[in-house]
Write the structure tokens for this entry.
Amino acid sequence: MGNHMRIFIMCPVRNAKPETNDKIAAYVAKLESEGYEVYWPHRDNPYQKTDPIGLEIILCNREKMVGADEIHIWYDKDSTGSIFDLGMFFALVRTQVFKKFVIINRDDIEPTSHKSFENIVLAFEKRYRKG
């Protein structure tokens, strides 16, 4: 019945490009074929199309993040939802143990010489790469 590891996919949703969704869908399908239980907000958040404010969306995502063993991110610096989710991860990681933080599109992220979310995402990966 699989390994029962739960993975939360942090990714752009509202303004995600179709080609990005296709790549994430392929990644999710691969994980699920390996027996992982995957929560992909684009596909799995029941409030995605009905919440006009976004509060129910983020509450649901938080609940799913709390229940996850691993967090995997498709980082897009223009995704404000992903930035919000990174903040939730930062707050939650102090109160619970995540087994791993994985950057799905690692080759797309370059460190910067200044403070940036790119550097934060890379630091999360380095700190939480155990598994």
About this structure: The mean pLDDT is 92. Helices lie at 18-33, 41-44, 55-66, 80-93, 117-127.
